[in-house]
Specification:
The chain is α+β, with helices and mostly antiparallel strands. The protein contains two helices and three strands. Helix content is about 15%, strand content about 25%. The longest helix is centred in the middle third of the chain and has 10 residues.
Length: about 80
């Protein structure tokens, strides 16, 4: 994650998803590299300081999930030919 305003996604392989849940029931998801997934507080601070969090809402919880390589496989469509 590049800590600029607004924060940009990581230039490394984005292998994790961080989800922020707020008191107004909204959610914000960021896809980050393994290094940033290990430091959620850094990502949270960058997003807060850049104004990315919903105005007037408080952060209720965060969750981090490693993305499975299987999830990145393209769906194969079956094609049928008419005879």
């Amino acid at each position: 994650m590049n800590l600029v305003t607004p924060p940009q996604p990581c230039s490394a392989r984005r292998s994790h998803r961080i989800e922020f849940q707020f008191s107004d029931k909204s959610r914000l998801q960021m896809f980050v590299c393994e290094r940033h997934a290990g430091n959620v507080a850094c990502v949270e601070r960058a997003l807060f300081e850049s104004g990315e969090f919903p105005e007037g809402a408080t952060l209720v919880s965060t969750s981090t999930q490693a993305l499975s390589a299987i999830g990145f496989l393209p769906n194969r469509l079956a094609a049928a030919t008419a005879e």
